[in-house]
Specification:
The complex is a heterodimer of chains A (about 700) and B (about 290). Chain A has about 700 residues and is an alpha+beta fold. Chain A has three domains: about 100 residues, 2-Layer Sandwich (Aldehyde Oxidoreductase, domain 4), CATH 3.30.365.10; about 140 residues, Alpha-Beta Complex (Aldehyde Oxidoreductase, domain 3); about 300 residues, Aldehyde oxidase/xanthine dehydrogenase, molybdopterin binding domain (Aldehyde Oxidoreductase, domain 4), CATH 3.30.365.10. In chain A, about 25% of the residues lie in helices and about 25% in strands. In chain A, the strands form seven sheets. In chain A, strands 3-5-1-12-9-10-11 form a seven-stranded mixed sheet, sandwiched between helices. Chain A has a six-stranded mixed sheet with strand order 7-15-14-13-8-28. By secondary structure, chain B is of the alpha+beta class. In chain B, about 30% of the residues lie in helices and about 25% in strands. A five-stranded antiparallel sheet of chain B has the order 4-5-10-6-7. In chain B, strands 13-12-11-14 form a four-stranded mixed sheet, with helices on both faces. In chain B, a hairpin with a 2-residue loop joins β8 and β9. The longest helix of chain B has 21 residues. Chains A and B meet through α2 and α18 of A and α11 of B.
Chain lengths: ~700, ~290
Amino acid sequence: MTRIDDRIRRVDAAEKARGEAVYLCDVKMEGMLNARFVRSTIARGMIDSIEVPQLPDGYWFISARDIPEGGRNSLVMIAGDWRCFADGDVRYVGETIGVLVGPSPAVLKALEKEIRITYTEREPAITIDDAIAVKGGPILEKDDVHCSLVSEKGENVEDVLARADEIFEETIETGFQEHVHLETNAAICCIEDGKYTFYISCQCPFYVRKSVAGLLGLQPSDIRVKQTTTGGAFGGKEHFPDVLAGPLLVAESVIRKPIRLVFDREEDMLYSVKRHPSKIVFRTGLDKDGNLLGSDIDVYYNCGAYLSSSYVVLQRGVFHANGVYDFPSTRIHGYGMATNTFPSDAFRGFGAPQTLFAIETHLDHIAAKFGFDPVEYKRRYFLKQGDETVTQGHVVEKVVLEEMLDQVARKSDYWRKTKEYARGGGRGIGMSFYNHGGAFTGNGEQSIIKAHLKLVKDGDRFTILCGQTEMGQGFRTILRKIVASVLEIDMDDVVYDNPDTDCVPDSGPTAASRSTMVVGRLAEEAAMQMKERLDEEHVEIETEYRHPDGHPWDQSTFKGDAYLGYGWGCACVEVEVDRLTNEVKVVGIWSSHDIGKAIDELIVHGQVNGGIIQSLGYASMEKMENRNGHFRQTSMSDYVVPTSMDFPRQEWGLVDNPYEWGPFGAKGMGELVFNGADAAYIDALERALDVTINRIPMPVEDIEGVRHD
Amino acid sequence: MVERCYVPKSLEEALSIRKETGAHPLAGGSDLMVQYKQGLGITPVFPFPVMIISSLDDLKGIETLEDGSILIRALSTPAEIASFEGMPYPVRCAASRMGAVALRNTATIGGNLGNASPKGDLPQPLILLDATVVLKSQDGEREMKVDDFILGSKKTALADDEIIYAVRIPRVEYTHVYYRKIGTRRANAISKLSLSALARVEDGVVVDFRAASGAAGPKVIRSHETEDILKGHGVDEMDSLMPAVLEGWNNAISPHAMPEYRRATTRRMLEHFLSSIAAHQEGGIIE
């Protein structure tokens, strides 16, 4: 019998470790063809001509002109502006112009080189500053602003700033980040039983069919999507698989043979979505003693050429812009800027990490200026249960930040070290606090997703049917464990396979730290109902998301409870800096998280370790530069992610704070653990070198630029 | 889609193929296979004929010769070099930190020199030690300093009919030695910058002083002119001579990317080494 507190070996661990798991590139079909994208080589301009060479028999070139009458050249993500094929003009380097299809990858590559595309180039806008200046003329109708919103709380912030003794102004910036999922993006499109069918490495199979159906004038239910075992995603396979699926579907409608598209690593680096770079401008009013009066914050995210899901990313950024602090007054403007870079999209944290890094670093700088210990300064403003949020809603759950701080401070010996390590002494300790709103922002869960899950009993076997995917995070284990624990049976008697949209109800995307919290809850409820009917041979129970009463949200004004529960975190990092070379050695990492309750401690431990290392990579070495629309880092040797040698063993802890509407009291946690170690690292680095850092990443050569010796 | 691929069974055959076809030697393949890869599911395409020489025993093995020099034959891997007894400290350091374990068991010293990447790890300590490269052709053998063999980024003095046979490291006496590689991360890293330096101090006099900078220009940099500033002077003169050495070195290097970082860090490392000589006259490895 499986109990919820057992430490479980992940159900997919052995097959993956042994190399037995079948990934998309392992799938072979009779008569299968290969595909190769033909992409824009310029960031912005008109396509004057496309000259395709005479194609050998059995080879095709498919482009926008192959979209049939009644079809729309649009990939429907959250917005529908991303085109399946560039048509007339191109808006970023790597935009899909066409797809070559045929048997031999080598021939496809040779044909690609022979295709001549001529352009009339226009000056591109690449950075947020370019977009603000509308460089090269507006990308959109009148300017370069894809989307914007404002959140306010307290008094009018201009009045607050007018009476402040001091206004602390600064700008904090973050860079691109590449997902580097181990398995690159890949998909197969074919026709099975007369129906267009995808095999695809993805997070959200229902997203894929919704996104591409309109290309052929079809309904989503006309398309079947089967998720294949997915080797990592981090958000990079939330909407981006649509960009592979769209052209494949159009090609399939013409060719009608199985077509496979597998990106190699270089394509996956150069021509895929990234985390939004950000620029966050603070004007913070302080009294003469350094007390916070209020802050006016402008948040700019570089969304790239298409809006895609960026408005929601921006909303999350704005809603997390005061961090875990109760600012008496604030006004936050968010701007999603259009540029001619590859569209930015989902990445673990979904807009929250940028503003959380910025607010932590900003408060560290204010504390340093007034001579306060940063932790002492920040804890004065910790949010508490019932406090007003920046969306004029309220913090629903009990907040246990003080307890988490205490846990981390004891393990790290923070209070002694913060006093003993002189600023600029080469050694530093830093701490950060952060949170992450669980599940979809605003009314997403109740109005848009309306998740469903089905639990089926056949004799002694129980099958979970839902659209959630395993992508390495451990959800297959989690969901089986929840159901088995409620039913008091063994996990081995619970089946939960990779989803197939023709066989499972739509439980919403595997994203937004919602799977355990929302879908896990549906599974728990279904299992509880099932428990009453165990004497029956065949039972089918379907559960549906219900929004808890008393938590209003107005999507037109963005006011109310943006999230029904937050995960909370505290991370501490200690560093030693080599003054000769600027190399930073991290000598200690400590963390504490409130995730409600851990469904499986081993999986949570893996997520904590991985999230924190990914965040430290983001802050230190993961540099992705873009020149004239081209990403400069093309491989895993020049886009550098940390190895296990880079950071020491972590000490971690959890606080028990069960969440009312989660299964067994669990809340979301997959993104939370990414959201704060970056700021703790930079805090420690600033103290070690006595410098001020206003941007990440900070590799050794950039540390040189902030040193003043 | 290899233009032509040969698999010689002996060094003589390899030299003959090299002369007749100009085929490029391919050993571990850790540079060539990456450089000429075509993407997923497509065989690498070489714009020249290649010969796979990895089975040639004549090109394998490391030994200490009678005069105390060390002969490292071309197919020696970084793993073998790093574990060879008596290997000079900077060479051992460079070899033991190249790439990942798999690469250290696959790459070869011949390939690392032949590829002549500015970021290559082995040339830097070899040039510090005045190591030579032994080149063979059907017409015989010639030997030249590694510093003369590598002409610039990806350029060498290898003739069309020659192959790299071995590297010879002469016996170099030193009392103080320093090696530092700053990689993109702590393991499996490409060099952002490296420096090695050594000095021989006898009775308070600097008899020998050398330094070599990697990844600070199109090829490894030495400056005999700058080295000479110190030679023959007492350690007690270090403070007064140091500015001239640092300035000379700064003028010798020519980093085109991250120039500020590479210049400042090289200067700090060299200054650290020179100060350590004065402070620790008994010698040893300077950390």
